[in-house]
Design brief:
- There is one protein chain.
- With 171 residues, the protein is of the alpha/beta class.
- It has four helices and eight strands.
- Helix content is 28%, strand content 18%.
- The strands form two sheets. The chain has a six-stranded mixed sheet with strand order 4-3-5-6-7-8. The chain has a two-stranded antiparallel ribbon with strand order 1-2.
- Strand 1 and strand 2 form a beta hairpin.
- Helix 2 crosses helix 3.
- The chain is elongated.
Protein backbone atom coordinates (compact mmCIF):
# COMPACT_ATOMS: atom_id res chain seq x y z
CA UNK A 1 0.00 0.00 0.00
CA UNK A 2 1.13 3.50 -0.73
CA UNK A 3 2.05 5.48 2.38
CA UNK A 4 2.07 9.21 2.95
CA UNK A 5 2.61 11.52 5.90
CA UNK A 6 -0.61 12.80 7.42
CA UNK A 7 -1.37 16.36 8.41
CA UNK A 8 -0.36 15.73 12.01
CA UNK A 9 2.53 13.39 11.25
CA UNK A 10 0.67 10.07 11.52
CA UNK A 11 1.83 7.69 8.83
CA UNK A 12 -1.24 6.92 6.78
CA UNK A 13 -2.08 4.35 4.17
CA UNK A 14 -3.79 5.72 1.11
CA UNK A 15 -6.93 3.77 2.10
CA UNK A 16 -7.08 5.06 5.65
CA UNK A 17 -10.19 3.79 7.38
CA UNK A 18 -11.44 5.78 10.35
CA UNK A 19 -13.90 4.19 12.77
CA UNK A 20 -16.14 6.00 15.25
CA UNK A 21 -17.44 4.75 18.60
CA UNK A 22 -20.00 6.45 20.85
CA UNK A 23 -21.53 9.03 18.58
CA UNK A 24 -24.67 9.96 16.64
CA UNK A 25 -24.36 9.84 12.84
CA UNK A 26 -27.65 11.69 12.33
CA UNK A 27 -27.21 14.26 15.13
CA UNK A 28 -30.65 13.44 16.52
CA UNK A 29 -31.84 15.52 19.44
CA UNK A 30 -30.41 18.48 21.29
CA UNK A 31 -27.79 16.50 23.22
CA UNK A 32 -26.59 14.40 20.29
CA UNK A 33 -22.86 13.74 20.19
CA UNK A 34 -21.47 14.12 16.66
CA UNK A 35 -19.16 11.53 15.17
CA UNK A 36 -15.79 13.24 15.37
CA UNK A 37 -14.52 14.01 11.88
CA UNK A 38 -17.59 12.83 9.94
CA UNK A 39 -18.56 16.38 9.01
CA UNK A 40 -15.05 17.08 7.73
CA UNK A 41 -15.00 13.79 5.84
CA UNK A 42 -18.28 14.68 4.14
CA UNK A 43 -17.08 18.22 3.41
CA UNK A 44 -14.02 16.85 1.62
CA UNK A 45 -15.99 14.24 -0.32
CA UNK A 46 -14.49 11.25 1.52
CA UNK A 47 -16.48 8.04 1.75
CA UNK A 48 -17.91 7.13 5.14
CA UNK A 49 -17.99 3.39 5.85
CA UNK A 50 -20.95 2.92 8.19
CA UNK A 51 -19.78 -0.60 9.04
CA UNK A 52 -17.10 0.94 11.27
CA UNK A 53 -19.38 3.55 12.80
CA UNK A 54 -20.82 2.43 16.14
CA UNK A 55 -23.51 4.73 17.45
CA UNK A 56 -24.63 5.01 21.05
CA UNK A 57 -22.23 3.33 23.46
CA UNK A 58 -23.24 5.51 26.38
CA UNK A 59 -20.98 3.56 28.72
CA UNK A 60 -17.44 2.25 28.54
CA UNK A 61 -18.48 -1.43 28.52
CA UNK A 62 -20.64 -1.02 25.41
CA UNK A 63 -17.97 1.09 23.72
CA UNK A 64 -15.36 -1.58 24.53
CA UNK A 65 -17.53 -4.27 22.91
CA UNK A 66 -18.07 -2.12 19.81
CA UNK A 67 -14.37 -1.33 19.56
CA UNK A 68 -13.45 -5.02 19.98
CA UNK A 69 -15.72 -5.89 17.06
CA UNK A 70 -14.37 -3.09 14.87
CA UNK A 71 -10.72 -3.77 15.73
CA UNK A 72 -11.07 -7.52 15.17
CA UNK A 73 -11.96 -7.05 11.51
CA UNK A 74 -9.53 -8.24 8.85
CA UNK A 75 -9.57 -4.70 7.46
CA UNK A 76 -9.01 -3.11 10.86
CA UNK A 77 -9.22 0.70 10.83
CA UNK A 78 -6.03 2.67 11.36
CA UNK A 79 -7.81 5.28 13.47
CA UNK A 80 -10.77 5.55 15.85
CA UNK A 81 -12.62 8.69 16.88
CA UNK A 82 -14.64 8.38 20.07
CA UNK A 83 -17.68 10.53 20.76
CA UNK A 84 -17.40 10.93 24.52
CA UNK A 85 -15.11 10.24 27.48
CA UNK A 86 -16.70 6.90 28.38
CA UNK A 87 -16.40 5.71 24.78
CA UNK A 88 -12.73 6.74 24.80
CA UNK A 89 -12.11 4.63 27.89
CA UNK A 90 -13.94 1.68 26.31
CA UNK A 91 -11.85 1.98 23.14
CA UNK A 92 -8.65 2.14 25.19
CA UNK A 93 -9.65 -1.04 27.02
CA UNK A 94 -10.39 -2.84 23.74
CA UNK A 95 -7.02 -1.76 22.32
CA UNK A 96 -5.29 -3.09 25.44
CA UNK A 97 -7.29 -6.34 25.33
CA UNK A 98 -6.19 -6.96 21.75
CA UNK A 99 -2.55 -6.20 22.49
CA UNK A 100 -2.53 -3.19 20.20
CA UNK A 101 -0.75 0.08 20.89
CA UNK A 102 -2.38 3.47 20.61
CA UNK A 103 -0.28 5.74 18.44
CA UNK A 104 1.80 2.91 16.92
CA UNK A 105 -0.93 0.49 15.73
CA UNK A 106 -3.93 2.78 15.89
CA UNK A 107 -4.56 6.51 16.10
CA UNK A 108 -7.15 7.61 18.68
CA UNK A 109 -8.93 10.93 19.01
CA UNK A 110 -11.49 11.68 21.70
CA UNK A 111 -14.26 14.22 21.88
CA UNK A 112 -14.22 16.63 24.79
CA UNK A 113 -11.05 17.52 26.63
CA UNK A 114 -10.92 16.75 30.32
CA UNK A 115 -8.38 17.51 33.02
CA UNK A 116 -6.80 14.08 32.96
CA UNK A 117 -6.58 13.60 29.16
CA UNK A 118 -2.86 14.31 29.24
CA UNK A 119 -2.31 11.79 32.07
CA UNK A 120 -2.74 8.79 29.75
CA UNK A 121 0.17 7.31 27.88
CA UNK A 122 0.18 8.19 25.13
CA UNK A 123 -1.45 11.51 25.91
CA UNK A 124 -4.89 11.77 24.27
CA UNK A 125 -5.59 13.89 21.23
CA UNK A 126 -9.06 15.41 21.58
CA UNK A 127 -11.59 17.78 20.11
CA UNK A 128 -12.10 20.17 23.02
CA UNK A 129 -15.51 21.71 23.52
CA UNK A 130 -15.68 25.27 24.87
CA UNK A 131 -17.42 24.07 28.06
CA UNK A 132 -17.46 27.44 29.80
CA UNK A 133 -18.89 29.14 26.73
CA UNK A 134 -21.52 26.38 26.39
CA UNK A 135 -22.62 27.00 29.99
CA UNK A 136 -22.76 30.76 29.51
CA UNK A 137 -24.78 30.45 26.28
CA UNK A 138 -27.19 27.98 27.92
CA UNK A 139 -27.75 30.27 30.92
CA UNK A 140 -28.29 33.28 28.66
CA UNK A 141 -30.77 31.40 26.47
CA UNK A 142 -32.66 30.10 29.52
CA UNK A 143 -32.88 33.59 31.02
CA UNK A 144 -34.31 34.93 27.74
CA UNK A 145 -36.90 32.13 27.60
CA UNK A 146 -37.93 32.79 31.21
CA UNK A 147 -38.35 36.51 30.53
CA UNK A 148 -40.28 35.98 27.31
CA UNK A 149 -42.42 32.94 26.64
CA UNK A 150 -42.52 33.99 22.99
CA UNK A 151 -38.74 33.63 22.66
CA UNK A 152 -38.16 31.00 20.00
CA UNK A 153 -35.96 28.01 20.71
CA UNK A 154 -32.72 28.14 18.78
CA UNK A 155 -29.66 26.05 18.26
CA UNK A 156 -26.20 27.49 18.82
CA UNK A 157 -23.08 25.81 17.49
CA UNK A 158 -19.81 26.69 19.11
CA UNK A 159 -16.43 25.79 17.63
CA UNK A 160 -14.44 22.89 19.03
CA UNK A 161 -10.65 23.03 19.12
CA UNK A 162 -8.32 20.23 18.10
CA UNK A 163 -5.81 19.53 20.88
CA UNK A 164 -3.05 17.46 19.33
CA UNK A 165 -1.26 15.07 21.64
CA UNK A 166 0.47 11.74 21.02
CA UNK A 167 -2.51 9.37 20.62
CA UNK A 168 -3.01 10.50 17.03
CA UNK A 169 0.40 9.11 16.12
CA UNK A 170 2.33 12.35 16.19
CA UNK A 171 5.02 13.59 18.51
Amino acid sequence: AHRERGAVGHEQFSHLQVAAVGCDMQRRGAGAIPCVGVGSMRKHGLEIDRSVMSEGNANSADARQSALAILSRADRPTAIASGNNLATIGVMRAVRDLGLRISEDLALIGFDDFDWADCFEPRLTVMAQPSEMIGMQAAEMLARRIKSSTENARQVRLPAKLVIRRSCGCG
